[in-house]
Each structure stands twice: as C-alpha cells, then as structure tokens.
C-alpha cells in the first residue's frame, strides 16, 4: 500500500503485488500508445501504412511542410488560439475576482454554469454561432461569418470558462490575510489586487493561458462551421486532408504539433505543477 | 499615536451575535490584551477595529477620528497576523517598504526607515532575503517591522505568537513588550493564552460569548476575578458553593473557612491551587486524602479529598517529598487565599 | 475586495465597483449564451432561423424524434460511453493506487503522460486507430474496424486518462493515517483498499465516471474515422445532418442531450462538488 | 501482553539518519514516553515499531517474537494517531468493531466487546453516531477504544493529545493513564510536550538527533538530567560554566556555590529557576538586581543579574510582593538546588 510500509512476504502477497504492477504497466502503455503510434507512423517510408513498415524515412515531414493548406492552417490556429487566450484572460481576471471574493446569491449556480461547454455539443455551439453571425452580417454588412474573428468569438467560449475556473480556484487558494495585510498598510483594493494578489497567483495565470491555448488550438467541433477557404484551422485542415487521403503526412503534422504543445506544457510545468493546478 | 474608544460595538450574523455590545477605552500608549476562548468574539472585535468586519452597531474611534465607516486602508493601523501574512513574492526589505510606498515616501527616506525598523526587530542584514528562507520567529519579526514602520496610530496583534514553538513564544513576547514600551504605541493584542496575556498586558479584557466579562490589570484579574468564568480562564481554581457569615465562608457541607475581605452575599468561594499549603497530617488545617498525585518536575499536581467530601486541587512546588495516592495530609488555606464571589445564578 | 471588509465610499470607489460588477455580468452572460441560444433556436417555428423568429413551436422535437439516424446515434453513443466508462474505471482504479501510493522512478513523468490526450490531435488518434484496426482485421479476420467495439477501444483513450487523474488526485487527498489505522487493526492492503479507501473516495469515483461518460458521449474527433453506417455516434449523426441541412432539429436534439447530461451533473453535484473534484 | 525490545534500530534516508541506533527495553505493562523536539526521530522510531517504516538496521521484538520483517497487519498492535484517523464512513460502533471483524470474531462477541470498550472510554450510547458528529475529545476516545478492543500486545500513541485544547488535554491524559494502568498494557507514547510526558510516564526516553539521550523515571530525568539538552528540554534551567572544587562549584567569574553531591570533573552547573529562593537585600546568599519581572498570576518570572555579571532566571510563587525592574534582592541557592554535569565539549 505505502512505499514505506513493511510488506508481507508470503508467496500469495508477492504474487498479488506483481499482478498489480503488471496491470498498471498495461494501463500506462495503453495511454502512451497513441503518442507512440503517431510518431511511428510519421517515420514510415511507404505511402500505405502497413506493419511491418516498408522502411523508415523523414520524407513525410517534407511533404507536410509543402502542403499550403496545412501550413496556413497552422498559422491560423496559432493566431486564433493566441487571440482567444489573451482576450479570454483579460475579461476573466476581473470576473474571477468578483466570483472568488464576492458574496452574492447564486454564486454556486454561476460556478456550475462554467461546466456548460461540457454539456452543449461543440458542433451545435459552432453551428449556432454561424447562424448568429450570418444574421449579424445581414444586418450590419460586416463580413464576420467567413473571417477568423468569427472563429475567435467562438473559441472564446472554450477559453473563458476554463480560465475563469482556473483563476477562481487559484484566487480561492490565496491566503486572505496577506491581502488584508496590504489593505492595512494603505493599499486600496485595486492596488492590492495588482501588487499582491496577481503576483501571488501568476503560476495559475500561466496555467490558465497554456490550457486555454491548447484547448483552442486543438478544437475541431466548434470551428467546423466557421472556417472558410483560406481561413481554416489546423485540425480542420487535417480533417480535410484525411478525408482525401490517408498517408503518413498527417502523422508528421501531428508530431510537429505534439512537439510544440508538449514543449509549452513542459515549460509551464517548470513554473507550476499543471497536473495539480488543472 | 492615539487612544482607541469602542462604544457598544456589536456584530450579528443572521440571528447570532458574535460580538454583543463591547465598550472599551484604550489609553494612549497602553497595551491592552483581549483574552478569551475561541469563539468568544475577541478576533471579530479586533477585525472591526481594523475595518475588515463592518459592525452591526456601535462605533470605533481612533484618537479624535470616528473610523467606523472608513475602509481599512484609510485607518493608519499596523496589523500583525498569526500566520505572519508576509508578501511571499517580495524580499524582506520590500515587505517592510510596502506601506511606505503606498504613502509615497521618497526612496531615500524609505531606505532609512526600513533599515531602522529592521534593526529594531534585530534583523539587520536580512533585507535581501525572501520570507520563505526565514524561520517562523524571524518571519513574525518582519511582520512586526512592516507594521511599525508606517508609524501607525495603533498596533493590532491577532494571536501573533500562536504559530511559534514554546521557547520562541517566550522570547518573542518579551521582545514585543519591550518594543511596544519603547515606541509608546497604543496596542491591542488578541490571544487565548493566559500566560501570554498576563506577561505583556498593561490591562486585560477577558471576553466570553461576545461580551467583556472583566477589564483590569493582570493582578486585579488573577487575584480578584469577577466571576467563575474569569477565575477559571486566567488560571486554575477550586470553587465551593456556600454562604458568607461575618468573615467566614461556610460551604454546603459545613466546612468553615475564614476569608479576609469577604463581602456579605458571596455564595461561592474560589481558591487557587497554588495558594494552598501542604502540611503533615494532624497539623492545623483541613484533613485531606490524596486521590491522585502527578509529578511535573517543577512541582506536583495533587487532587485531594477533604473530610466533608469536597475535592481540592493543589499545585505545590517540589520540596523533595514523594506524594502518593491514599496518603493523608493537611491542607492549609490562608484567609488571604480565598476569594468570595457572587455567581448570581 | 472582501464581502465583509468595509468599502470606501468616495464616488470614484463606488463607480469602480459598479464597473467591476458590470464586467462580471457580461462575462457570465457570454458563457451562458450558447446554452440560451440553442434552447431558443429549438423552439423557433420557422425552418429558417431568423431573428426575430417567425413564431414558436415544439415541432422540431417531433422531427428530431422521427429521425432514425439521430435516434440510433443516441443509442450508440449511450452504449459506447457507458462501456468505455465502466471498462475505464475498472482498469483505472488499481493503476491509480499504484500511482498514488507507490514510490518509483519516473512517477512524475507518468503523471505528465496523462496530459497526452490533450496534445495528440483527436482526429489523428482516431485515424491511427482506424489504420491499426484495419491491419488487425486483415490479420485476424475479426470485423473490428466497422464495429462499435472499435469506437469503445478509441474512447477508452479518452476516459482512462481522465479517470486515472481524478482517482489519483482523490487517493492522494486521502489521509494516510486512516489507512494505517486499518492496517494496524489487521486489515491487509487489499482489504484496506476495499473497506476503507474506496468508500472514502467514492464521490471521486462517481465524478470520474460522470466526467468520463460526458467526454466520451460528446466526442466527435476520435470517432470520426471509426463510425460505419448503422454504427454512428450522436455527435457524428448531428454533424452529418448539419452538413445536409441547417434547421432547428439539431437544436432540439441538443436540448435533449443538454437535459440528459445536465441532469447527470446536477445529480452528481449532490454527491460531490464536481467543480472542486474535477 | 508483552514487553518490547528494540535493538540498535536505525533509519537512514539517503545519507541522513532519522534514527541512529536506538536500543530500548520496555517492560511488560510499562508506560514509556518518547520525548523530544520535532525532528528528533521519535515518530520514526514509533513507526518502525508499528511496521510503517522499514528499519535500515536493527530489530524490533514484541514479547518473544521478532517482528522486524512482519507487515503492520500481522503485528497485533493498537495504534492511536494525533488526528484520530477514524473511518469517516463508519459509525462509532463499526469503527471499534473493525479490528474484531478482521479477526473473524463472532457477531455476538463483537457486540459485547465493542460495548465494553466504549464504556471503558465513557462513550456508552454513542455507538450509532458518526465521527464527524463528535467533538475532538470524543473522537480521540473512540480511537482509543478501537485500539484497545483488539487486545493488542502493545499500545502505540503518536502525539495523541496534540489536537485537543488545553483543558481537554489535561483531562484526557489523566484518563489515558488510568486506562493503561487498568488494562496493564505495554504502551509507548510519542510527544514533544514535557508536562504531558512527565504526567503519564513510568519512564521517559528523551531523544535528540535520532539518538536516545537519557532513559529514566520523570524525577530522575528532571532532578539529575544527563546533559544540557535533557536539562533544558524537560524544564527551564540556568547553566554556568566553571569547575568543581571539593563540593564547591566555582563559576568562570569566581562565584563559589556549595553543591551537595558534586562529582569531580563537572564543568557545568545547572540550577532550576524554581529552586532559587528570593530574600530581602542583604540576606545570606547572592546579591542580585532585577532585570525584568513578569507577573503570571500563579507566580513571577524574574531575570536577575548577579554581582559577577551572570544572569539567573527565577520562577517564584506569588507571595504578595510586587517585583520591579532595578530592585535589589538576594537569591538563595541551596546546596541541593544545583546539579553538576560534564558537558564533554
């Protein structure tokens, strides 16, 4: 049970622990499988993915790089995710202060509301926003429905609830007496928030930003109805490519994406224990 | 510097009174301790003085100023918390400078005043450290420096020693009292520890259930407690029901004890365990049997049973005897040892 | 700042607080918008969704009910999510014990690995598994690639990491001395786990089950390449419907799904504070 | 019932020794207390006896059985934790019955034994409650009942009173001692509180830095501490460097103090603050000036400065005097008050 507790040495006890370790290894292998599989596929030489592979090569990375659709999808996704995350955090922080510090009726209900992106099907959110933007476009003449700004508006619905939840949780964890000390020393609530509270929770802010970015970058459902030619996100470009042809190109793109996001996560985990914060 | 005047201060949460009409006058430069068990309202009272809790009734005056409706950041108070509440992302120097920066003091003046404050709490040379790299006692001294550097009108201390271990608690309370005397700053401290309260206070206010039971100097409170609650909270005490008869207290079982300065109408006699003398069996006094005897190094804790069936707790210095269960001896209660009180119940 | 702290009464201070409240209300409204929009759309009478609507009716709920594809998608999703969650929890609980209680090198790395469903694009996971299943099918003759079991295998990759994280986090939160008390009273590690630890963390187990179910039920990316005619999940049936026609039918389906999942979440939050556990 | 024998027990984490060669013999039915500051290794020692920490070296014997490699669930020990560690999802009755069920005791016998155990800790009628509906003191009594109901060979207590408030701590320690005497069960308790240790122990083992410094009865430890660490951990003490000269201890500044039973070679004199008598200035003894005087109700705490410049802490019962800073008086140190020790450093 514990790493320290003295363990029984009867044969049946030793056997039971071995079985537990084997089961655990199996579960972990299963979780690691997709990662390993994608990396493996990306290095297969042949056009048709077979086991055992015909050979290994780096050619699909070159092919991927030369696909304009994938390249521009990557740039669009990067831009959308960055804008949606930044805007998300900007509106989120004050709202989180109100939620974490305020005492008002329905506070619990509001926190439940933050689960809503989980329960409304993403594809329907996307379609609804599309319908809504078309209406606005008809009324005002602004070309929203086909622009990347439409995608940003939709992706804010992904980033904002995550950010509010993370930042609120971090604010709740701040020792109130530290803020009270600042107030007693003459800092107004605004000055206290800026000079004391935010510096104390910045690992949480970083985690919220990274998490929002990753969720936005990888989303396919919400974007599906909002993309337009030349304004396609990477996951949708991948989808479109796969519907046309299944070859290791996409595996190569995925590995690139995995390395990018993986690096961001590792960098973040130096600042904060993401596993704990999220 | 200024005195503090609290008038009929009350705080109610729904129907429950946390603080129920507290009136206190703290003189300029005085060290007052609010003493009481947890939940007695002492911390809520302190937080109303600081401005973190809005009173349901009453008012708070600091010097001539009515601050009842002022936010905490316009009260000019120094506050020290049980958990230190230092800013973890700032160095010691920046922690102490925080209040001065809010007051837009010049950089040169900040440096001088921070250095003076740190040297007052004996932390010269620690300015560049971060709080997490310091011991609990050092952190609490930083918190004290941060509170006094702004030259507050009053200093409020909320269980400042509770997180420190026994030896450190003893040292820091001495330093705290010395510092307060040097600065002459009006101070209110909240604690549940009777030793701590007695050792630093000019006056104590003993609280129970949201109300002040008694206000007075440590010796007034210990020697002439106003009621049973105060008597047993500021020390241990034996109580006997009975009645006063011209200088003699007669207990329910008929024991007659001469008591100096006994008011007519007293219905309870209080005797401190350390005020009882122990003598050999047969000597002048009350015959008693030892029920339990506990050796505590510096002394003994005895539970005695008297002839009339009453129990008497005694704390005696260790004079080399070895007390044993079942032993018979004489307990001597001097006329000055007993205090008569009216329980009113 | 605090609900209790006495607040400044200068005009600028009162104004600042009002602005903060307004911003918060706006953020909350934005989060609640998709939910409200979908419900609103589902009741619009006309075939074309316009603002203001032509009128209100319940007709789309009837239309949705009569769509065989949506009905069977609903059943498939329910079945897949239930099986993936149950199997997921069964393999997860022992693995979580090993992760939470064991002390072995690379423990931190393993916990990071649990983030992998976030970083490998879901669409690529689905496509990879499809390729893999086709291979297995060719080798063994088992009809895996077109069956719902293939979807379950893929969805286990969604539920297992969530379950491991939630159950591990809950196990770490258990006071070890309670388990030690059981051991000292003569309970073996297995008996301690079954009679003491699992009963103590059962709100966490319920949360893991609900969360896994919701994630599996709503997933579109991983399933995309694994569905076959007659074995389509609800989100993909919705996607296919929307590609053919945009009318309030899908809004009606979404409202049904929202009510179902919302009810599950509300029921769970009576047992456990989901917002805190997740 | 059985004694416990620990031989050269050690626990190292990487290069650091948490416990460094502890040998102890606990007699059948004895109440032994492991006393020491936090980090001294007392809890690790207890956890090795319980089986929750595997020793790096040495062995643990309970009665005739070598249990060093036995898992905790085959040691037949009763364990009580600081945080009670009750099963929150079970009623009090089911908590107490847990160990009996693991031993496959019949339902009828379980009912009887649970009822007996609950009545031993004065919790008759509480069987149907859940732990969360009980006070801290009641929860700790349930934990004690749960530990003793299995009739363990030994009872291990890990800071069992630390989570209770002062008054309750005083009561529960009395009950614990009474129960242990009644059951005659071999018991080891870990604590950092000297009062607690003295009041319940048959013998104390004082630990520091992973080693046992001294083992003995409370009065042996208090009156004849083996070294400076023990002397200052089990009470307060004044220390003076110097040398022994035929029954007289000569301090570094030349002060000559007669000491009964002074070993040649002693280089440090220890005087307990409460062993010093206070007399009017000019009386026989050491002339002294009051540096600080603190009134604590039951007595006074004085810091004196002697003629030779030494400081002397004194704790004196309150005899009605009011001591003041600067006052001159005489400190009387009886020959039996001083203890000579060899610091070896």
Automatic annotation (TrEMBL), chains A, C:
Record localization: Cell inner membrane; Cell membrane
Transmembrane region(s): 20-43, 78-99, 111-136, 148-169, 181-202, 208-228, 249-268
BP term (GO), one: transmembrane transport
One GO term describing the cellular component: plasma membrane
PROSITE patterns listed in its UniProt record: ABC_TM1
UniProt membrane topology term: Multi-pass membrane protein
Name by which UniProt lists this protein: ABC transporter permease
Organism: Methylobacterium terricola
Automatic annotation (TrEMBL), chains B, D:
GO molecular function, one term: ATP hydrolysis activity
Keyword terms: ATP-binding, Nucleotide-binding, Transport
Membrane topology: Peripheral membrane protein
Gene Ontology cellular-component terms listed: ATP-binding cassette (ABC) transporter complex
Coiled coil: none
Residue ranges constituting the ABC transporter domain according to the UniProt record: 4-234
Major subcellular site: membrane
Highest taxon, organism lineage: Bacteria
Keyword match Nucleotide-binding: yes
One Pfam family per UniProt: ABC_tran
Location in the cell: Cell inner membrane
Membership in a protein family: Belongs to the ABC transporter superfamily.
Protein name listed in UniProt: ABC transporter ATP-binding protein
Organism: Methylobacterium terricola
